[in-house]
Structures are given as C-alpha cells and as structure tokens.
Amino acid sequence: MTPMRLTAAATLLALAVAACGGTTKSSVTSAPAPAPASSSAAAEADPNAPLKEGLKLAFLPKQINNPYETIVDNAGIEAAKEYKGEAKEVGPSDASASSQISYINTLTQQGHDAILIAANDANAVCGPLQQARAKGIKVVSYDSDAAPECRDLFINQASSEEVGRSQVRLLADLIGKKGEIAILSATANATNQNTWITYMKDELTKPDYKDMKLVKVAYGDDDDQKSFTETQGLLQAYPNLKGIISPTTVGVSAAARYISGSKYKGKVVLTGLGTPNQMRQFVKDGTVEKFALWNPKDLGYLASYAAAALVSGQITGAQGETFKAGKLGERTIGAKGEVILGPPFTFEAANIDQFDF
Ligand code: RAM
C-alpha cells in the first residue's frame, strides 16, 4: 500500500454515505456470552454473519478536548449510522492514567455492545475493561492500545515501528543528520507515544545517525499550554538543540505556536505528527517544513466497523480473520489482535491544501 492511498481517501473530505447492502434483520437485545480472556479460545467466527442492527457503541477517547480524538470519534459515530447502529462519545477532559476508569464503569453498567477506547494507560484501564468483557461487552482499543489481554482488538493507525522510525528519518533529513535533538511527547503513560519513542531510539542507534544525539524526552501531557511551556523549557535548557520531534497533534501544534513567535524560528527544526488544519499556518509561515499523520477519519471509521463485526460474530479477534470495513474494504487481523489502517503520510507546503481535517 502506498502513501498515495491516504491521499485519495483523505481528499474525499467528507465521509461518503456507503451503501448498507445486504444487512440484516436481527437486533441485539441481550448481551452475547461472556468474553474469554484469550481471543483464540473464543467461539468460532462466522465471516458471513450479517452485521447486527441496533448496536450500541461508545467511543472513549484519551480526552474529549483533543481535536484529533474528536475527528476520529465523529467518524466512528457516522460510520455506525451506515450499519444502523448507534454510537456516542464520552470521556475525560484530561489524558491522565486513571481518568477513563469511571467512564468504563458507567458504560459497562449502561450495557453497551462495545466500548472503543484510546487508552491513556495500558494497564490502569485493564481491570475495568475486563469487567466489561465479563458482561459480554466487546472491547476495541484504537489509537493507543490497552494491554492486549484486556481488549479484543487493537485498531492501530499505522505500524508503530514505521511511525517511530519514519519520524527520525524525517527529522534527520531536515537537519542534515547532525546535532542535538529532543522529543516532546504526550503523557508519560501513553501507549502509542511510548511505543513510537522506543522505535525512534532504536532507529537512532543506526550508524547513519551517529552525529545525532537525543538529549531529552519532555512530556506536554497532551495539554496545549503545558506543551507550549515545555517547548520553551527545552529550547532554553538546550541552546544547541537542532530539532524537535513531537509525535502528538497537541504537542506539535503547541510547539509550532511557540517557535513561530520566538527567536528559534528558522533555526530549530520542528516535525512530528499533526493534523493539516492545526499545522497549516505554521507550514505557511515557515515554522514547519514537514510533518506526518494518517487520516483520523478513516481510523474512527475502521474501529467502528471492527467493533460491529466483533459484536455480530463475523470475527473473534483471532489472527488471520477478515472483515469488511465499509468503504475501506476488507481488513485482516494481524498478530495480537492488531488491525493496521495504513502507512503514515508526509504533509508539506506542496500538498497541505489538499487536506481538510
Ligand atoms: C494526539 C494523541 C493521539 C495521537 C496523535 C498523533 O492527538 O496523543 O493519541 O495518536 O496525537
């Protein structure tokens, strides 16, 4: 799959109302049998089972006031309409490790068919998610994984290894593979950022990058103001800093805002993972040359269909099973219950105006 596939999908700008061909009569009134701890021991999948109508899904993002999470969840909620289900978003206003627990408990009591979660901490949410599964609720993590034994599926936006390594390659090219660099991350517990950072550090051990030195990993907690202040702190503490990678849409936009109004503009290179709409002005004013992401709408859409396929019995979460994800076509479950959306895509002045998210 080439990055251009993302271009094609993203330029659709609005979610197409896909045809709900060949769906179903059955509706869900009672919860399915309790989920086993391991998906491999689950009931057999029936790939031809129709998607059930009337499914109740809930999206639980890292935090509700993060524009990225809003795009993902709204797309998942829209997708549910295509298969005649109902979905909603609830969640905390901060991305701290324990902030999602009370929401999981409430959703469990309310008796949803599936909970979709971008986990703020892989383990803190585990007990509550297991309680939900014991009641027959399917659990799908997306964006940021929960511990694999606590969910049925993980919908990953891109290969974690590819995200981590490509972020280093992006910055290396922009600074001529030389100098001190720093990372401005989200929270210290975030599963997705921590996995990406592990691959970034590994990439940096390659001989090609021997003249690049990672001096600090700072945490802006996916809080705009804290990310802004942490950027300022990094630049003051490391006067020889040549580049910053911020693999979070909240972090990279706050860092860009700080740098654009500072003496570091044009001197310190910033890249990371951002949404085109948040980064556009900083690409236009020359603060940022290149950054990456995938299509967050497609992530929410895929997660929504995956949850519906699980609840409908088309899949159980086992490796090798396949399901149809509406307009995104057939998808296959990989190792450890992971489904990958596609490769990251690089945005720059020449293409950024083709995107609206
Ligand atoms: C932020 C969040 C999210 C991450 C994106 C790239 O919005 O940390 O989890 O996937 O950035």
Automatic annotation (TrEMBL):
In Swiss-Prot or TrEMBL terms, this protein is called: Rhamnose ABC transporter substrate-binding protein
Q: Extract the ranges annotated as region (Disordered).
A: 26-46
- Gene Ontology BP terms: rhamnose transmembrane transport
User: Which N-terminal residues, if any, form the signal peptide?
Assistant: 1-21
Give the source species. Nonomuraea montanisoli
Keywords attached to this entry: Signal
Does the record carry Mitochondrion as a key word? no
Record-linked InterPro entries: Bact_Solute-Bind_Prot2, Peripla_BP_I, RhaS, SBP_2_dom
Gene Ontology CC terms? outer membrane-bounded periplasmic space
What GO molecular-function term can you cite, just one? carbohydrate binding
The record's annotation in CDD domains points to: PBP1_ABC_rhamnose
Q: What is its main location?
A: other
The UniProt entry, under Pfam families, shows:
Peripla_BP_4 (PF13407)
Which lineage ranks, top first, belong to the organism behind this chain? Bacteria, Bacillati, Actinomycetota, Actinomycetes, Streptosporangiales
- From the UniProt record, report the name of the gene that encodes this protein: rhaS
